[in-house]
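Here is an idea for our session: we take a single protein and study its fold together. Once you have written the record down, we can walk along the chain together.
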Amino acid sequence: MAELFAKIELFETYTECFALPPYEEQFTAAEVEQLFAQYADKGMIILCLDTELYRCAGFVASVPLEEDPEVAQLARNHGLNTADFWFLEEVGVGKAYRHKQIFSSMEQELRRRIPVQGVLSHTKTINTASLKAHKKLGYRIVQGMTQIVKYQHLSGEQRQDERVFMKYWRRTQQ
């Protein structure tokens, strides 16, 4: 997997997505590789490639909600049946590729592939661009469902912030 990630520059795209505001987080290539190996083992990764540059333009990594025990417990505490949801663990689109419907296309591909009706996602409370993109796809905020996330800031210090959860529920055709 490391060879593939290096070829498509996934780490570079990931860093670009999360090193910039509003996240300003710091990761190593090994940490990102380990995260995505777990997502591949437990769930699904959808990549959007720039075929001219053979570079990762965007990514969606998702697992069945029950595979993330902390978030699954939060969901149960807010009345969600965890068996009905997959969780978007990681979402990112490289800066040069934004506003081209890439997140929308990847997320809709995920919906086609998962065997459940619901998708749960989260973002930093102040990430208005992400909140707007999710809303356009039909996600709604789960009232009161938040999580405090600790992370390594670019400055090197440990920080924490609040993430808000949103859910999408596929309407069945009648």
In short: The longest helix spans residues 29-42. The radius of gyration is 16 Å. DSSP finds six helices and six strands in the chain. Helices lie at 2-8, 10-19, 29-42, 69-77, 102-113, 128-136.
